[in-house]
Every structure is written in C-alpha cells, then in structure tokens.
From TrEMBL:
The lineage of its organism: Bacteria, Pseudomonadati, Chlorobiota, Chlorobiia, Chlorobiales. Gene3D superfamilies: 3.30.450.330, DD-peptidase/beta-lactamase superfamily, Penicillin-binding protein 2a (Domain 2). This is Peptidoglycan glycosyltransferase. It comes from the Bacteria. GO terms for biological process: cell wall organization.
Length: 678
C-alpha cells in the first residue's frame, strides 16, 4: 500500500517537472521571438526603412515656414503711392511651453507655469488687460493646442520691445499689411487677408504684384527654441513688380470730390467721371460714386468694387449725336448753315412720336445741334442710311470694349443693321436703341478732339522692378482714323463750341478756357420700359478743351438724380469745376494753355454757374440754387412756375450771389434743355 503511494508521488513529481519544463520552454521561446522582433524592428529602422524614419524624425524637429514675398506697390504718374505693403508684426505662442517652462532650481530641472508672468509682460507692452492674455494662453493649453495668436498686424515700433527682448514660448512673424491712399478705389482695388487681389488692378495683376514666396527651414530645440536648420535649403522671396499708372492723384482727387458733390446734392443713385489726355489715350482720372474706405475693409461689399465708368452701359441720349453729326458732315456733306426742319417740336414716325422740348421750326443745322433737336437728329440718321450710320457707330468704338486694361468692362450693346426694326435707325440718331459706357462716349469725343484719330485708352504706364527699373513700358496706340482732320475741326468749332457758348452746355463753361461738348439727359430703360414721369434719368456732360487744340477730354455721368436732374444743372457744372480745378493745379496745363496770373486767379475763385430754373416750382428753384451755392429772391405768384430768371442760365457768378426769378401760373419759358425721352 505504501509502495503504491510512493510510486504515485514520484509520478506526480515527474509530471510537474515536465509541465514546468514545457512552460519554461514556452517562455524562453517567447523571449526569443520578442528579441528577434526587436532586432528586426531595429534593422528595419536603421537599415531597411531608414529614409522613411529619418523623414518622420525630421518632421518632428524640422519646420518649414513660407516667407511671404513683398507685394509690389502701385504709383500714380508722378510717383505718389496709391498702394503699398507695410511690414507688420504678428505674435503667436506655444501655450505648452509657457505653462510648462523648464527651469533649473538648485541643480534640479523642474517645469514652471509662467502664464501669469507672461500675461503681465504682454499687458505692459500692448495695453490690453492681463486677464485677456492669461485666459488666451491657459484656454489654449487646456485644449492641448500648441499654437495661438497673441497679437496680429502690430506696427513694427509697437512690437519692437518684444522683438528685442524675446520671451520663451512666444515668436514673432513678419507679415504684410496693404495700405492705400484712398484714391481710385475701384481702379486700384483691394487685397484680402491672405494678401491676394480681389478687385481692380490688385486682382487683374495679382500674379505680377505678388512676386514669389520664399522658404525657410527651422529646427526646434528640446526647450522649444527655434533656429535655422543647418544644411537645409533656404529659398529667398522675390519681391513682386510695381505698377506705375497714368492716373494723376491730384486730378483723381478733384474728380472724385466733384462727382461725389454732384451725386449728393442731386440725391443721385450714383455717378462717374473720367479725364483723358486726348493725344495719348492716357486716363488721368477715373472715379465712381459711391466709393468705399480702402483701409477699413470690414464693411466692404463686392458690389462696391463696380467700376461705373467701365461697367455701366446706358442709353447715351444726346451725347450720341456726335455720331450723327460726323456722318452727316462726311456722308451727306451737310454744313452748319444748311436749313433743316424742326416740325414744330413734334414728329410722327412709324406710329411713334419724337418730341423736342422746344417748338423748333426751320433753322440751321448748327442751331439744331445747339438746341439738341431729336427730330432733326432722327431724320438726318434716316437720310444717312443704316449701313453708313452703323459704319460710323463702330468706327467711333461703340459696341466693343475699349481694352483700357481693367476688369469688369462692358462692351455695351450695338445690334447689326440686319436685326434692326423700322424705328432703330431714327432712334439711334438721337441716342437710343443701343447702350454705351461712359468710357466709350468719352473715347468718341476724344477722337474728335484728337483730329479724328481714335486712341486706345490705357491706365498702366510702366511695370517697375524692385529697384525702380522699367521692366515694361506702355505707349500710346493709334487705333483708327475715324473722320478726316478737317471734319473733326469743323465739328469742334461749329457745333460743340456753340453748344457750350450758346446752348444747353453753358453751365460747363470755364472762364478763359474754350470748352466744347454736349449734354445728355436720357431716360433709363427699366424692366424693358421707359417709365415716363418717374425721373429715372441718366444725366451726362462730355467735352474737351481747349477747342482750338484740345489736350483734355472729360465726362461726368450722374445716375438717377432726383433734384435738378437735367444734365445742364447736374453734370455740366461738375464738369466745369473739374476742368477749372485741374487746370489751376497742373503746371503743364497752365503752360500749354498760356494762362497768365489774372486768368489763373479767376480759375481759383469761388465762381459758380447759374443753373436753368425755367419751369421749376418755387421750392425746386430754391433747392437747386442752394445746391449750387446761390440764393433766391422771387416775385409773382408763389404757386406758379419760374417764367423768367434775372441772371442768365450758364453765367458765372460769385458763390453766394442772389438770383431773382419771376413766378407765373402760366407755363414756364421754352429755353429748356431737351429731354431725350421715348
């Protein structure tokens, strides 16, 4: 019995020994496998996938930073800065480093929370409450963010204390801030927060202005410090090109001021103005109202970027009669003394009525132009014929873009003769059944001013390198001879000078300077209709000076004026002020015009043109005179209309002068500018 027990015990011991051996074998095998795995992993890291892990390690301690190229500047023709990039400093922090700053205390390395200390320092430098910076840092640290902006776009002088005394965990970044002179906003345009052009020249020439960004590679130390990595390729940024424009900042400012004044005083929807050198096609000013603050872009809306002189296409009305007059002179051989019939101010054509404001009868063609007869213009266009008339329309540049070099230009609408209806030609004769932009209308008058040669308008003068050297220069381009030189001179002297001296353009006159031009008060096409009686008009004046040998052409367009909406009382005075002020401030123009001291004094005086008051109610006349800087005295029936004014329309008088009127219940006088209506 005892032997059996002993034998069983021995067997159990052997069994346990075998089991232990198996377990030890398994453990040993596991250790061997683990060791082999480690060896294989090390082999993989150090030999097989060495490049992969080297790249991964580099990403952990190397950091690439794009160096933004300096954006090129934009200058006017005299070197005045219209747009430039100013260096600003932005600050960002690593909250983890600030809240866990390694420090050495008695030979022992510990981590210290320096958020309070850093926040106090920042508050002292930049003026914001300490709690502002403390909350910013701590909140980011709690969210385990390793990056937070502390300040953006600081002037260099403001950021200099921190730049000269660095704080561990805070870094400075050089950024660009675009600064504008606040002139020609729709022309120059804007950049967004990423320094990318979003409108105007900033958009059109964005790739040229931006230049080429550089690249710097930094290495991060164990304590969070950053320094340029040794051996890494550093790419230098290349500055963008600069633009020199044809604009004159002084003339631009004058134009903006005067169209803004005209728009505000007439309670208009908008306004535009352009000034051009007729000999070269250079744009000296291009203005739109309303405008916007270029240095306060928080309230900027895309529609404010609309460049009205290029984008607004409208029925030009009487200003388009330049085409009819040119074709009549060359195709029909008409002269200023030829007799034409005004048909008493009303004429039926194809069951439609064409009207003139005045009841004109037989007169000379010159008088028809001076009084802006729609009837004579329509009948003359019919006599010229569709093909010849269309030929002159296109030769003057209507129906296609001028190619001035700006975004957003409209071509206007000019249909081909084969699509015309019975009324198209006579209506085109006095400026309807087509649309044109202000710059197209101006180009047509500049062509006559330039002895019949159409020049291409342009606004970029030169591309400049970073050292101011010329990279590319733009020159005047003759596009086409539209009319003979003799024709152009004849039109200037016989018609357009007379319109300003005797007709509807008298308010555009400038003392001591001969002005030629044309008014236009055209009804706007709204929803396919001309809404009569609602005063939806485009009022414009376009002209040039001096008539004998023109140098400058300009146009003023006022969109939907509600007070004094005739072009003679809204657009023409603004034209006069632009021309007189620009001559007074331009030495080259003074020399070219041969003006002496007394004449220059007259240009600089506060003289204003007396508006046409005929047919207005007492309140309307009073408001219009007040707008013009004049005072009103009246006699007669206060409920009547102005039948007579004591100071002739278009006369230049001192600001603040009194103008007397006679009021009558009978209909007002007839010496009124035509309204181009349908």
């Amino acid at each position: 019995m005892r032997g059996d027990t002993t034998r069983a015990a021995v067997q159990n011991e052997e069994s346990r020994t075998r089991e232990l051996s198996v377990r030890l074998g398994i453990v040993t095998f596991g250790f061997v496998l683990f060791f082999v795995a480690i060896v294989m992993k090390l082999l993989s890291i150090q030999v097989i996938d060495v490049e992969k892990y080297r790249e991964k390690a580099s990403r952990q301690y190397l950091q690439d930073k794009v160096v933004q190229a300096e954006r090129g500047a934009i200058f006017d023709r005299k070197g005045i800065l219209l747009a430039e990039s100013v260096q600003r400093i932005s600050l960002h922090a690593d909250p983890h480093i600030i809240c866990n700053t390694p420090v050495n205390r008695n030979g022992v390395k510990v981590e210290e929370d320096r958020a309070h200390e850093v926040a106090t320092l920042l508050s002292g430098y930049f003026g914001k409450p300490r709690d502002h910076y403390y909350s910013l840092i701590k909140r980011a640290d709690e969210q385990q963010r390793r990056f937070v902006w502390i300040e953006r776009s600081l002037p260099v002088d403001v950021a200099r204390p921190l730049m000269e005394h660095p704080v561990q965990g805070i870094w400075t970044e050089k950024e660009q801030h675009r600064y504008y002179l606040n002139l020609a906003s729709q022309v120059v345009g804007l950049v967004n927060t990423d320094n990318k052009g979003i409108s105007g020249l900033e958009l059109k020439y964005d790739s040229d202005l931006r230049g080429h960004n550089g690249l710097k590679t930094f290495q991060r130390s164990a304590t969070g410090g950053r320094f340029l990595a040794a051996g890494a390729e550093q790419v230098r940024a290349e500055e963008g090109i600069s633009l020199e424009l044809t604009l004159d900042a002084d003339i631009q400012a004058i134009t903006e001021e005067e169209i803004t004044r005209a728009a505000l005083q007439s309670e208009a929807k908008g306004a535009s103005g352009i000034v051009m050198d007729v000999r070269t096609g250079e744009i000296l000013a291009m203005a739109s109202y309303p405008s916007f603050d270029m240095n306060n872009r928080s309230n900027f809306r895309t529609e404010q970027a609309r460049n009205r002189p290029l984008a607004d296409a409208f029925d030009p009305g009487s200003t388009f009669k330049i085409v009819m007059a040119a074709a009549a002179t060359e195709v029909l051989g008409m002269t200023a003394e030829d007799s034409v019939d005004g048909h008493g101010g009303t004429y039926r054509m194809f069951n439609k009525t064409i009207s003139d404001h005045e009841k004109l009868e037989r007169m000379t063609f010159r008088d028809a132009m001076v009084h802006s007869s729609n009837i004579v213009s329509a009948l003359t266009a019919m006599e010229i014929g569709p093909d010849a008339f269309y030929d002159y329309v296109t030769r003057f540049g209507f129906g296609r873009k001028t190619g001035v070099g700006l975004v957003g230009e409209s071509s206007g609408i000019v249909r081909k003769p084969e699509t015309w209806g019975a009324l198209t030609l006579p209506w085109m004769g006095h400026g309807y059944s087509l649309t044109a932009t202000p710059i197209q209308v101006l180009q047509a008058y500049a062509t006559i001013a330039n002895d019949g040669v159409r020049m291409k308008p342009y606004i970029i003068r030169r591309f400049l390198g970073s050292g101011g050297e010329t990279l590319r220069e733009f020159s005047p381009q003759k596009e086409e001879r539209v009319v003979a030189s003799e024709t152009a001179k004849y039109l200037r002297e016989e018609y357009f000078r007379a319109i300003v001296e005797e007709g509807t353009g008298r308010a555009a006159a400038v003392e001591w300077i001969s002005i030629g031009g044309k008014t236009g008060t055209a009804q706007k096409l709204t929803d396919g209709n001309y809404n009569k009686g609602k005063r939806n008009y485009i009022s414009s004046f376009v002209g040039f000076f001096p008539v004998e040998k023109p140098r400058i052409a300009a146009i003023v367009v006022v969109d939907e004026p509600k007070r004094g909406y005739y072009a003679s009382t809204v657009a023409a005075p603004a034209f006069s002020k632009i021309c007189s002020r620009m001559v007074a401030c331009s030495e080259p123009l003074k020399e070219a015009l041969g003006l002496q001291a007394p004449e220059l004094a007259a240009l600089s005086s506060r003289q204003v043109a007396v508006p046409l008051l005929d047919g207005l109610r007492l309140q309307e006349a009073e408001e219009l005179l007040e707008w013009s800087g004049l005072r009103l005295s009246w006699r007669g029936d206060r409920h009547g209309l102005v039948a007579l004014q004591d100071v002739e329309f278009g006369s230049m008088v001192e600001a603040g002068s009194m103008v007397g009127v006679q009021l009558s219940l009978a209909k007002g006088g007839a010496d009124r500018e035509d309204r181009d209506v349908q």
